[in-house]
Amino acid sequence: REMNGSYSMQGVEPDKGTKCRESFKFVSEVKRDVWKEIGEERSEPTCSLSVSKISYTVSERLGPWWDLPSYRKRWTRQILNDVSFHVDSGQIMGILGNSGSGKTTLLDAISGRIGNSGTLLGDVFINGRKLKREEYQDCFSYVLQSDNLLSYLTVEETLTYTAQLALRKHSAEAIKKKVSAVMAELSLTHVAHSVIGGRVFPGISGGERRRVSIASQLLQDPRVILLDEPTTSLDSMTANQIVVLLAQLARRNRIVIVTIHQPRSELFRVFSRIAIMSCGKLVFCGQPEEMVDFFSQCGYECPEYCNPFDIYVDFTSVDTRNSEREAATFNRMHEITSAYQRSAIYQSMLEKVEQNLQQTDKPAIPFKSKESPNGAAKLEVLLRRTVRNLSRDRMGVLMRLSQNLIYGLFVAFFVMHLDNDITKGAIQDRIGIIYQSIAASPYTGMLNAVALFPALRAIGDQESQDGLYSKWQMFLAYIFHILPFSILSVIIFTSFLYWTIGMNPDSVRFLCFSAVVLVPHITGELLTVVLLGVVQDPNMVNTGVALLNIAGILVGSGFLRSTQQMPEVFQWLSYLTFQKYSCELLIVTEFHGLNFTCTPLLPLPGACVITGGDQIIEQGYPGALSRYTLDFVLLYSFLPALLLLGIISFKIRDKVIRH
Ligand SMILES: Nc1ncnc2c1ncn2[C@@H]1O[C@H](COP(=O)(O)OP(=O)(O)OP(=O)(O)O)[C@@H](O)[C@H]1O
């Protein structure tokens, strides 16, 4: 980009040296202000969180499934081992540790997001009361490692929709005020009307996106906020700003627990507590100053000019590069852990946990603000949100509307004009057009779903864990929001193809043709989304839907082989395919009452035996004419059936997916 202009300080344009000195002075002053703000006296804690003896064990299969003896054997792995700590409101606790040490799993365990794949032991107490499993979600706000936000919404819209989902009973005015307050608290007011942005188009910065994710959680006034690596992939200055901001949030009577990789040494004073994890164990948990003394007493001094965070994480990490290093580093970690468990810091932490449990005047559990659920209202907000997001995606909308038309152009170019002379392909061309209309439509729907839905699914996974709505509601919102686009796309396609190549020129037949082609198109998208509920990998779903479509065409359409000539089992199976009904309907729509001409090149006997379209119907699809209405009903019944399957699929997802 081109940049013009200059700047002046007190009316004078500074030379290079002055600029450096002044900017250094400026940075130092800002920093001092930040420390002043964080260092404010805080009020008496009103909320305390105690985590007592959390352990999590998973069992894994040893071998691949084709090696049955080893596959049968399982080995258990302890991911979290007897983790206990205590935090009061007003404090920010940083959890450090090398990759795989169990930081994320600890946050998942505390917030009740651990799936059913392992055994979780231990308890979480808030204000001296043991939390029930179903209460975890209502108590903690959890900011995931990745920002799952809709790219085309502005910051203000993103927060407003979240507030409408979370605080449904509030008036529009109250929600507006709440959103403005949260934006002000997280310094987002200046980007309120900027779009979030994504991989393909620019939007707000990475740090601002992180702050939007945190702001979404703050809308429900949580007293306890958990953040999984909120500084990942941010530059060190922005990462610092985020941690300082979190410290400020904690100062306002909240508990903030944050996992973090490589914090800068200046953040040493920002954290109220530091926990270091290694191999699922809490190797140390205490105040930053206590950490330095503790490690020095263990004989592991932090060398001068080194970042204590990095050094202590190194001291406690197990190096698995070779067995010798592994044994040595494991022993060191074990030695430090034992020293911590013998230390006064550990004993005083256990006492605090005990005190918390024995508190007589126990304040109420500080649940997040939540309103009684109203399914229709949530669905309406979700629908508005997805429609607004898609409507801003001009390229996406254009592609959706034009993809069938582009396909229609290919077909029209190939066929040019249908002839009524059977020696000039009157039957073959018509059957070809019907085949193409039914067989290709599901693919365009499938491609749309695979491109758009996984991102929405990630958002739905997170927000349903936050208790905003259920995953199946997000599924319904997605399907309803694509319906108008699908209908329009199919109408554009059929209007072009039908009249350009000269299919049966009757407006009722045209409407029937469009209505039939719509179902395979929507079914392709619907089936893909249904499978994406239970299958995580979109590529697998792609392959699965493509194979199902091919099987449906083979068994149901009767194009390759007449249904009557197929084995009985396939004949029964054909009733389960939408291709059977759509094919019969299109054959009748096009061929019924159609008269053919015949001008054979050679006067061969039987060359002109077919004179009308009804002969085609009776030979290939006997009884299809009398089943016309029934076929329509059966074809359209696939849509509610798939909607129901989708709801079941996303209810299963609720149970099996960790986030
Ligand atoms: N359900 C599970 N089944 C098997 N292993 C698991 C499961 N959950 C976690 N683990 C394993 O537990 C270990 C700790 O994982 P976790 O994600 O908590 O680490 P982390 O400290 O957050 O790592 P990072 O900093 O890289 O995100 C990893 O080795 C991970 O593979």
From TrEMBL:
Membrane topology: Multi-pass membrane protein
Co-factor requirement: Mg(2+)
Record field: catalytic activity: sitosterol(in) + ATP + H2O = sitosterol(out) + ADP + phosphate + H(+); cholesterol(in) + ATP + H2O = cholesterol(out) + ADP + phosphate + H(+)
Protein origin, superkingdom: Eukaryota
Family statement: Belongs to the ABC transporter superfamily. ABCG family. Eye pigment precursor importer (TC 3.A.1.204) subfamily.
Record's function text: ABCG5 and ABCG8 form an obligate heterodimer that mediates Mg(2+)- and ATP-dependent sterol transport across the cell membrane. Plays an essential role in the selective transport of dietary plant sterols and cholesterol in and out of the enterocytes and in the selective sterol excretion by the liver into bile. Required for normal sterol homeostasis. The heterodimer with ABCG8 has ATPase activity.
Protein name, UniProt field: ATP-binding cassette sub-family G member 5
Source organism (scientific name): Sphaeramia orbicularis
Gene coding for it: abcg5
